[in-house]
Amino acid sequence: MPNIRKALSRAKALRAKHKEHGLPVDVVRLATLEGVEVDRTDFGEDVSGVLVKDGERAVIGVNGRDAPTRQRFTIAHELGHHLLHANRNLFVDKNYIVHFRDENSSTGFDPLEVEANQFAAELLMPADRVRDLFNKHPFDIDDESALRRLAKTFGVSPTAMAVRLSTLSLE
By the 8 A CB rule, do 75 and 27 touch? Predict the structure, then answer.
């Protein structure tokens, strides 16, 4: 069973620790401050990102072919795995621990994936900021232009923003 509360709390704590209060959240800066390198590469069409741990070194590989908003979510998701699941063996290949983010990562069945997704959502779209901005300018979730404007503020895709609004019961 996923520990959503822990995931949300860790995302909030990370922003506070590094005084990351602006929008959109600078997820690469946060990863770097946590000692995690971010490397953009071409993974083809099936993999969005990977978290590789080799001893104390951690690298998030993100698919440079993906849209910038998708890359940001992938980095946040993999950073979530790094911070939330540091003691877990995810996928072991030789002396490396490797975790891939692919189309199955968002299905909601794997508790570790659910936690990483919730961490990423809270990191990039802090609930308090989403509520504040939405309440100042409420709109119907079917209003694509309003949804796109709000998504742009947070540097996420309209789809991610719609899911976040729904999760926060702001639809």
Answer: yes
Q: Which helix (H) or strand (E) holds 5?
A: helix 4-17
Sort 44 into a burial class: Cβ within 10 Å, 0-12 / 13-18 / 19+.
exposed
**pLDDT for 93:** 33
pLDDT for 103 beyond 90: no
Q: Which residues contact 63 (CB under 8 A, 6 or more apart)?
A: 40, 41, 42, 43, 44, 47, 48, 49, 70, 71, 74
pLDDT of residue 109: 72
Domains of the chain as residue ranges with CATH? 4-124 (1.10.10), 125-171 (no CATH)
pTM for the model:
0.88
